[in-house]
Structures are given as structure tokens and as C-alpha cells.
Amino acid sequence: MADIERLPALPLIANDPYFSYWMPADTLNGAVPEHWSGAPKPMTGFLTVDGIEYSWLGQTSRRRMETVSLHVTPTRTVSTLTADGVSLTVCFWSPALPDDLDALSTPITFVDFSLCATDGKTHQVKLSLSLSSALCRDGETEKPMLHALLSLDDLQAAYVGQSQQHVLSNCGDHITIDWGYLWLAARDGISVSARDSLEYRLIQELAPDTPIKSYALLGYDDIASINYFGVCCRAWYQRNGRTLAQALVEFNVRHDVLLAACEALDARVMNEARAVGGDDYVQICAAAWRHTFAAHKLIATPEGKMALLSKENDSNGCIGTVDVSYPSVPLFLKYCPELVNALCRPVLYFASLPVWEFDFAPHDVGRYPYATGQVYAAAHTPNGLTPPPYYMYPAGTDVYNLRSQMPVEECGNMLIMLAAAIAYGAKDDLLKKYTPALEKWVKYLDQYGEDPGEQLCTDDFAGHLAHNVNLSAKAVVGVACYARIMAWLGRDADVGYWQARAHELAQGWLKRAQRPEGSPLTFDGTGWSMKYNLVWDLILELNLLPADFYSEESCSYLPRMNAYGLPLDSRADYTKSDWILWTACLAQDVDTLRAIISPVARYLRETPSRIPFSDWYDTKTGAYIHFIGRSVQGGVYMPLLRWKAQI
């Protein structure tokens, strides 16, 4: 395992948008742990060696253990610390296993401990881990809590939560959970302090050559996870009535099996990343794995189907945002393509309801944790308040502001995601069920996508833009993907028509956009921009544009790069890390790919912003602009799709 030199924030607990806590420092004892949104959530750990107390977790007034090493892998954060002849290795790990969706959807994180004497002497040691009840509330105001100690088979367990439970009681961005119960479990040593903190303690004699190993389980019972179009739905692992207490017992029994699976997954992902992009790319992939999964909640719908719902962190708090799902899908396509269908399912359902009268795809399905209908560009949906039940509104209600929609963007996104999912092995049931919607969307792209009018794209922070060359590229790819969908559905007449139309659009696009110095930002020849949307031509082998265009285009990016990466376009110095990795895949050789992605790793090592991997930052200063902990970082896995031959 290679040392990760430094990440802007270290993942400690990273399971879902609410159970997501990070260390904004270089070491486990360098700061107070925080929720991804920046809210302090105190967790402390101490090691007493022969009567002298040291901190290993959190920022406290005690003297700190010295950090010897720190490793971050896709599923684990491992640190070794020392004090007074004793070495402590701590591993925070979450079984984010895409081939075990019950484990992946269970909000449980392990903390493994290993103590050994390094000086040949016997020591009296006391190890502790404490979790504040602040993890059970939003805001700084203390609230009445209740707690209990329980025996669960071979486990001692304790939970704490508010005395009055208001399930699904808050909604919006930059908030933490305000309901449910925090759990801590171990074989022994569990207690609850006078201030309702959950504590784990181990007191033992540490003899030379006889290491002490133990672990604790940290879990969260959110009672209800998502309001899914009027039904309060729970996490996927609970679809058959399983409780968190039962999951703690099962995870305890499976500890060694789950850890081995995580170690095997880590080795696979990092070896594949190294083969494609070297050590820099390993760091990027390690930083993005738990980060991506923790920005989602995997639930069972009322019909028992999977719905994977993202939270648009540090943006507007939307749930199931289409143009946030779109950049995230490379990770899922590579390791569990059925999750791409799970991203699309709620969008397709909402788009079929009477309230959605447009002939283009929606932007989102609500505001987390309320999947009750699109809130972007809707009336009367202020952040922080529960959105109206738009899913029940009849046709003709006139809820949405047309100017603020993203019609070409979202139509292209949905068609591309659905086609890519099938290409990588997902089921085709959504294609069959929602064919009429897909047909409307491809016709919209055909009519308006060739040279889009003034409208927003996914990079909406940059404002409206007419004649957007990159947005037009998405329309071309979307039409080609619809032809692929028709082929899978056996509609041969439609295949021929839409294949021909896609190639006609592609040739027109190439004639207007190709320049020796790189394609422009707009069709009037202004500026330049990343053409990340074209990556699907190469990934799905659509054969829309010639190889010489991609070689010319990727080479044009190299002189435009700054210290921390390629700017998004000619209008500003900021960038999007997910789009950099997609753009790098337009390269025709691995050396160019590595040259484009390596500044992103440098950003991770040097950014002054101590937050989970931001996807929107300044390429000259490395400072965060906006966007924290977002699901889009699944997009950094695109090179593993593009360079399969290297793996």
C-alpha cells in the first residue's frame, strides 16, 4: 500500500449524505472532525500509556500521538501513530462494495485497532473512542437526548438520539441529520457518558510481541431515508425488514470477510488505476471512491426496485439531479452498471407524471431527502423548507420557469446514461417501460441540439450561453445513443434512421467546430472549452468523429493548462475535476492522458481548502470555488473505461 501524501480532508465515516464525517487535516488528531458541510461533529480518541494520556483522534488539549504513516485507499483510511514505546494502527473502513449492495447500503463504518509495544517493554494501556450526540442533531443547540445500552448476541451496543423524533424533518443544503439514532458497538467496553456521548474503552496490559487487536462498529439508524413520491422509503438493506441492530450483529460476524473483500477491492482499483494513470491517478481514485458513494442513498422503492439518489451537496441540495448523475456514472459503469439504472429510475418515473408536461427531461426529482418532484426552476421552493408535493399536481399547473431549465443537457444526459448502462450489462426494463419518453427526448435533441439557443448546461454556474459547441456535442452523442437503444429494443427501422441522423449531425458539428488550435466555445468561433461530452464517442465506439480530430483537440489543451489543471473554458481560470478526467480521455495516447490528469492530483496534495474533494476550484491557486463532497467525483473513473487495454 502506497502512502497517500496528503488529501484535503480524510474520510472517516463515509456512508451516505447524512452519515458522512471527515478530518480536515493531515492527521487523525489534527482537527475536530466535521460533516462534509463543515459542521463540527466532535469525535475523540485517546490512548493512555502507563498513565500518560495522548490523543489519536480529534483536536483536544491533550498531547498528541505522533503520526508515523497515513494511507487512504478506496474503502479504508489507515494511520499508524506512536507514543512512549507503543504503536497504534487505526483503520476507518466502510464496506462500499459494489458487488454487495446490502453491505454498501448499510450505514455502518468499522474502526479497527491494533496496539503493539515497540520498545520491548510491557505497558499498561487504555484506548478510547468517543462519539458526540451532536451527530444526531442539526445545528449547535443541544437537544434532549435518550440513550440505552443493549446486548446484541456477542456485542455490547449503545445508541443515542433525540427524545422527540421528527423523521425527515429537515430539507436542503448544508444541513445535517436531525433525527434517528447513532449506534456504537463492540465485543465489550461500550458505555454512555453523562453528556450522552457513546464511548468505547479497552483497558489491558500490552506485552512485548503480543499485539492487541480490537474493533468497534459505528452505525446510524435514520428510521426513514427518503420521501419517495409520498412514501417514506428505507435503505436498500432494510427492504425485507432488517434493522440496524440486526445489521450490526451480521457485520460483526462478517468482519473478517468484509475486510478481506475491501482489501481485494482496493487492490483491484488501485492496480487498475496505476496501470492507466500512474501514482497520481491512484491518488485521485482513492480520494473519490467513498466520497462518491457517500453522496448517494440507495433505497428500495415501494415496488421493491433500486433507486440510487444523490444529494447535490454544496450546490442547492437537490435530490436525483440528472446532470449530477451524468458525470458520476463511470464508477458505476465500471463496477456495478445496474446502479446507473437505479439513478435513472426516479427521473423516468417523475417525467411520466402529469405535472411534467415538457417534451424534455427533468433536472431533478426534489430536494434531499424529499424526492417529490423537481424543485429546480420551480416556484415556492426556498432552500431549507420542505418542497411541495409536485408529484401530485395535475397537468396545467404551470409550476416551472422554462428559462431556467436545461433541456438539451438533460435529454442528452438521460439517453447517454441509459445506453451506457445497457452497454455495460445493466437490464433493459427501463428502456421498455419508458420508450415514449425517450422518443420525445431524442426528437427534442434533433430539433434543438444541433445549434442550441441561449440555455443552461450542467455548468450552469457559468450562466446561459447560446451556440454552445460542447452542448451541441452532447446532443449529437445523445441521438447516437438513442439509435443504440432502438437496436437493443429490436426496432430496426428506427435504428437506421437515428444512426444516419447522428452521423449527419456529427459531420455538421465537425465542419463548424474543428480548428487546428482546438474547437471553440461557441459556434461563432469565440473562445475554447473542454469537449468532455465527446468522450462517449470513444467509450461506446459510436464512430461519430475521426481519430485525427481527437488527437488535434487533446493536444490543444496542453498549453492551456495551469498549475492545478485545465480550466473549464476560456471565460475563467476555474475548472471541474470530473470534466478534466473526461477530457483527458480524448487523448490518443496514455502520456497525454497522464499529463492532463496529473495536476488534479497536485490539487489534492496542495489545495489550501480543507474540504472533501471539491470538483470546482481555481486552477491557479488551488482554492475551492464551490461544491463539496459531490457525487460527480465518480466521473474520475472515466479513464478506466477508456483505457481498458492497459488494465
Q: The biggest beta sheet, please? A: 8 strands, antiparallel
SS class:
alpha+beta
Average of the residue pLDDT scores: 95
From the 3D structure, determine the CATH topology of the largest domain. Answer: Glycosyltransferase
Q: Roughly what percent helix? A: 25-40%
Our count of domains comes out at 2
CATH class of the largest domain: Mainly Alpha
Shape: globular
Q: With helices defined by DSSP (H or I, 4 residues minimum), what is the helix count? A: 15
Relative strand content = 15-25%
Low-pLDDT segments: none
Strand order of the largest sheet: 7-8-9-10-17-14-13-12
CATH architecture assignment name of the largest domain: Alpha/alpha barrel
Total strands: 25
Radius of gyration: 25 Å
* Distance between the amino and carboxyl termini: 18 Å
Short description:
Helix content is 32%, strand content 21%. It is of the alpha+beta class.
List the topology elements:
Elements: E1 10-14, E2 20-23, E3 34-35, E4 43-49, E5 52-57, E6 63-64, E7 66-72, E8 76-83, E9 86-93, H1 101-104, E10 108-117, E11 123-131, E12 145-152, E13 155-162, E14 181-186, E15 190-192, E16 198-206, E17 212-221, E18 226-228, E19 231-233, H2 244-253, H3 255-293, E20 296-300, E21 306-310, H4 322-335, H5 338-351, E22 370-371, H6 407-423, H7 429-433, H8 435-448, H9 469-488, H10 492-513, H11 535-539, H12 547-557, E23 574-576, H13 577-584, H14 590-606, E24 616-618, E25 624-626, H15 638-642
